Amino acid sequence: MAEGIRDKVAILGMGCSKFGERWDCGPEQLMVEAFQECIEDAGIDKSEIQAAWYGHCYDELGTGKGALGVSIALRLPYLPVTRVENFCATGTEAFRGAVYSVASGASDISLAIGVEKLKDTGYGGLPAIDANSGALSGQVLPNISAPGSFAQLASAYRAKHNVSYDDLKRAIAQVSVKSHENGAKNPKAHLRKPVSIDRVMAAPMIADPLGLFDCCGVSDGSACAIVTTPEIAKSLGKTDLVSVKALQLAVSNGEFVMHVRHRAIVSAGDSDFFQCLHIRTQIFRFHVIGNNPYVHTAFFCLGEFSDNSVVGNGENANIKCALCFAD
Question: Which CATH architecture has domain 144-216+248-324?
Answer without folding.
Answer: 3-Layer(aba) Sandwich (3.40)
